[in-house]
Structure to design on (604 residues):
């Protein structure tokens, strides 16, 4: 396989009145200099980074011309175009012909060009639309910036007619000294398959073999003794390459990837990595780094991962959608566990079967992209959806089953904000809770008891505190005893208290601060927010570190000394449960919701 980057100078223009399709803009043959609406854009780049379109949600057309000069025999190969991320609806034409479309802003998709591509003057036209719609994933309302356009790499894939695809590597440990590896694949055309496993420097061939299948699907297993295990502390990688070894091709490389040998397991209330108990400590991160928007330079992503490590974190939650695969390659290499999710977020159209199909496809695209990355340990099928409603619970349960069907080797869950009435907790491997005591409601001192109450009916699983936090405007300081909202002191107090409390709970297997960095959220407009969600440990404008940032390493493993509320929690649960499960939980939820939505995002 050969990859040709289609990044670089493209032209683009907005289609405010949605007339492009009617006027056949896809028939473009040359950059029309008389069209003074045509602008330059350096793809990948969101059109929201162009002057005058900072807040644009609409239709944007992108035009590119490319050649295939160096290919002597164009018919020898298959051709596909890959978009790594384009938000939300993307329609594509090549040389005036419609190729296809894709819904969803955060996962890669591929379209076949074999019958349309020419050696010269290929005209590629891409129409993107990021208008919010009820049946989309996410739906109309979400707490992040709706970056539109082609914001990740575009690549032309030149593929051998005979090749393998969808190579899935699954590793299981019998003991820490012995691992089983199962490699499955599907063959396009006919292949005489030969494989090799090398060390990460690719110098020594450690294992090799052939596989009898020549077409269709196949798999092979091998046992590795004394494997060099992958973990956040020692992120050992191996390298797999596959050749087509038929007489005609002789050792033609048709697939290669890094992978790691590691196992993630649940046993009772604990999570184990490579047979050792692990406690996850980390923060969530949105894919945004100003002034680059979502198109973050590799070095900046790496810097973020290094900062996570120096804070003492061993994990990151890539909220609320999959980030560029470049980040996952970095976490593989540097050693950080990754919690991935799809943007099934808060209120979606759970009764709509088309919406379900979109979510399912996103999950598939995400799992297919990242299944061989050892750093990824969890697939979450949603965040803060109304899990007490039956329609929603059914939707989520089907996604959980689907994820499990594709990959039974990782944690499968749905991130929940429901203190009690969550109809899906019985299906997930790990129970989770997002809760903002000390910020949206109550006081952080209530956390201990609340956690002990909610945990009582779900006592045989690990729990993760997936979100907690408080907003702080970098540079806004108050006296310690005043604890004003949006002060760095208030944020520090909430985070400090919550972390030390969760560290104390034996049934918790981890926590994630919301959020590593402030991120743009247009609805947040008070004088502290200025268009940002301010719950970051570092500011969104200049990455300035807030007080809490410096405090984290000091308390990361500290347990608060306190009266244990476990027994009180159980007693309270027993008293409250007969008072009617549903009545009780609905009242709590109603009360919390009342405080949360007041007044809209202004005080959040
Ligand atoms: C949440 C959401 C997250 C928001 C956060 C907040 O519960 O999961 O998307 O950004 O709260 O800051 O309100």
């Amino acid at each position: 396989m050969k990859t040709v980057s289609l990044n670089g100078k493209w032209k683009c223009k907005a289609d405010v009145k949605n007339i492009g399709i009617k006027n056949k803009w896809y028939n473009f043959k040359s950059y029309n200099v008389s069209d003074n609406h045509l602008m330059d854009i350096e793809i990948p780049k969101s059109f929201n980074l162009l002057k005058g379109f900072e807040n644009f949600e609409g239709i944007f057309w992108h035009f590119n011309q490319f050649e295939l000069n160096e290919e002597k025999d164009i018919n020898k190969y298959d051709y596909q175009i890959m978009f790594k991320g384009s938000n939300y609806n993307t329609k594509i034409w090549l040389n005036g012909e419609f190729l296809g479309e894709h819904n969803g802003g955060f996962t890669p998709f591929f379209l076949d060009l074999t019958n349309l591509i020419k050696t010269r003057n290929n005209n590629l036209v891409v129409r993107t639309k990021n208008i919010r719609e009820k049946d989309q994933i996410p739906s109309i309302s979400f707490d992040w910036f709706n970056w539109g356009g082609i914001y990740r790499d575009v690549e032309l894939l030149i593929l051998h007619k005979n090749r393998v695809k969808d190579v899935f590597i699954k590793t299981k440990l019998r003991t820490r000294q012995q691992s089983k590896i199962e490699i499955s694949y599907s063959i396009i055309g006919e292949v005489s398959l030969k494989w090799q496993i090398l060390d990460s420097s690719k110098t020594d061939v450690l294992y090799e073999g052939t596989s009898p299948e020549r077409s269709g699907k196949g798999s092979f297993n091998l046992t590795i003794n004394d494997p060099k295990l992958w973990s956040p502390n020692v992120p050992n990688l191996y390298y797999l390459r596959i050749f087509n070894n038929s007489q005609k091709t002789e050792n033609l490389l048709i697939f290669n990837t890094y992978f790691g040998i590691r196992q993630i397991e649940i046993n009772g209330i604990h999570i184990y990595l490579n047979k050792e108990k692990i406690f996850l400590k980390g923060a969530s991160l949105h894919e945004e780094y100003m002034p680059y928007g979502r198109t973050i330079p590799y070095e900046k992503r790496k810097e973020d991962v290094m900062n996570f490590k120096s804070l003492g974190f061993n994990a990151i939650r890539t909220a609320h959608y999959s980030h560029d695969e470049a980040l996952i390659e970095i976490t593989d290499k540097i050693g950080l566990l990754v919690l991935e999710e799809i943007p099934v977020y808060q209120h979606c159209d759970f009764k709509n079967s088309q919406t379900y199909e979109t979510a399912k496809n996103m999950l598939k695209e995400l799992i297919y992209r990242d299944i061989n990355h050892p750093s990824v340990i969890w697939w979450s099928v949603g965040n803060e959806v109304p899990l007490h409603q039956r329609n929603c619970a059914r939707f989520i349960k089907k996604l959980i089953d689907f994820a499990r069907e594709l990959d039974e080797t990782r944690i499968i869950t749905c991130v929940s904000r429901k203190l009690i009435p969550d109809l899906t907790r019985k299906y997930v491997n790990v129970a989770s809770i997002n809760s903002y005591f000390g910020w949206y409601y109550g006081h952080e001192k209530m956390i201990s008891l609340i956690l002990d109450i909610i945990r009582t009916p779900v006592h045989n699983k690990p729990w993760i505190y997936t979100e907690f936090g408080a907003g702080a405007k970098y540079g806004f300081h108050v006296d310690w005893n005043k604890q004003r909202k949006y002060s760095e002191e208030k944020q520090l107090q909430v985070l400090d208290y919550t972390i030390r409390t969760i560290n104390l709970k034996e049934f918790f297997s981890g926590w994630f601060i919301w959020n590593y960095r402030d991120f743009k959220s247009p609805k947040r407009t008070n004088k502290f927010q200025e268009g940002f969600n301010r719950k970051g440990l570092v500011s969104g404008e200049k990455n300035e570190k807030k007080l809490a940032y410096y405090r984290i390493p000091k308390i990361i493993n500290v347990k608060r000394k306190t009266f244990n509320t476990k027994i009180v929690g159980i007693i309270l649960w027993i008293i409250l449960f007969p008072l009617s499960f549903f009545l009780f939980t609905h009242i709590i939820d109603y009360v919390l919701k009342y405080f949360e939505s007041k007044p809209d995002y202004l005080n959040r």
In short: Residues 265-602 form a domain with the TIM Barrel fold (CATH 3.20.20.80). The radius of gyration is 25 Å.
